[in-house]
Specification:
It is built from 15 helices and no strands. It is an all-alpha fold.
Length: about 325
């Protein structure tokens, strides 16, 4: 296990270095002049040049890259020109909000998509299979911002049973003591169950919005993988041996069908974490996606570089977790790896 972790971490180093280089070059290739943007529309050319010198943008790209690497080696991701705050601090504050939203959305999707995928695989061509296909198509076809607005309109405006779609917690409550940054966990650790309920109710609508969107690939992958396993020889042998239907289905078939589902989960999670910006905008969620979009519009290089590097590290960690899960689900996978 330790050897596998060490090999995966060593193998990820060239990828992270490549991400650092590509991100730096791409941010400098973005259209727009950060010095002119932050100087304002009424600034003179002299004032713009002074800001450019202050930001170090008058130096060559190689020199700027060397300074960036030097700061990176000290754990400094730079300072956001838009907010005036260190990027590391901004990411540390906003990443838990996006993580909590993504994890809850994925958990909801998983709780619905996997059972439906199994049911569809055991009854191919039935009305249930067609219903699952219709749900999957509707979920992935509706844009997340439309689903979010629709849910907020129905459950908050019309029915009045959902809290206002404004942020992570109702204004009547104070955030829990910061331990993990995840309000649900922090409120439980603080034994404040009223605050936990408030955070959960605030999280429900955006999580459902994300869950509906990612339910389709998980459901379809579960169905396809289960169909392949259920037609295998060892399943026919298990049935011929007189094992119960539930034991064959959940002990043998589902376990062998889980590997592609876990792979899909990893891909969906990394995709959602960086791309749930529309949901964050609809529900005024203070996540990392909306922060980076605002920085990108302002040609604020440091937050964009910090975000991409953080996503690369999250992706490396996620791949490592998936590799370890492979070994838990099917020990042959770890031996072959």
């Amino acid at each position: 296990m330790t050897r596998l972790i060490g090999e995966r971490l060593l193998g990820a180093i060239p990828n992270v270095i490549g991400v650092v280089i590509v991100t730096f070059v791409l941010t400098r290739a973005l259209p727009g002049d950060p010095a002119a943007y932050f100087a304002g529309p009424a600034a003179t050319q002299e004032a713009i040049e002074q800001i450019r010198v202050h930001l170090g943008l008058d130096k060559s790209l190689l020199h700027q890259f060397g300074l960036y690497l030097k700061e990176l080696a000290r754990g400094d991701l730079g300072t956001s020109l838009s907010t005036g705050q260190p990027v590391l601090q901004e990411i540390a504050t906003r990443l838990p909000a996006s993580l909590e939203l993504t994890l809850c959305g994925l958990a909801l999707a998983l709780a619905v998509a996997v059972p439906l995928g199994i049911l569809a695989a055991t009854r191919p061509g039935s009305w249930l299979d067609h219903l699952c296909r219709m749900l999957a198509t509707a979920g992935v076809s509706l844009p997340t911002f439309f689903t979010g607005l629709l849910l907020a309109y129905v459950f908050y405006f019309l029915l009045g049973i959902a809290p206002s779609p404004l942020g992570r917690i109702d204004v009547a409550f104070s955030p829990p003591p910061h331990l993990t940054g995840l309000y649900l966990i922090d409120s439980l650790l603080a034994r404040d169950f009223e605050l936990f309920g408030a955070a959960a109710s605030q999280l429900l609508l955006p999580s459902i919005t994300l869950g509906l969107f990612v339910m389709a690939p998980i459901m379809r992958m579960t169905r396809a993988s289960m169909l392949g396993v259920l037609s295998s020889d060892f399943i026919r042998t298990a049935r011929a041996s007189g094992l119960s239907r539930a034991k064959v289905l959940y002990t043998y078939a589902l376990r062998n069908a889980l590997l592609p589902v876990v792979t899909t989960l990893g891909m969906v999670f990394s995709f959602l974490l960086g791309s749930n910006v529309l949901v964050e905008k609809v529900f005024a969620w203070p996540g990392i996606g909306s922060y980076v979009i605002e920085a990108l519009v302002a040609s604020d290089y440091a937050p964009v570089q910090g975000f991409v590097l953080t996503m690369a590290l999250v992706y490396v960690a996620l791949n490592l977790i998936i590799d370890l899960l492979y070994g838990v689900i099917d020990p042959r996978a770890s031996l072959e790896g």
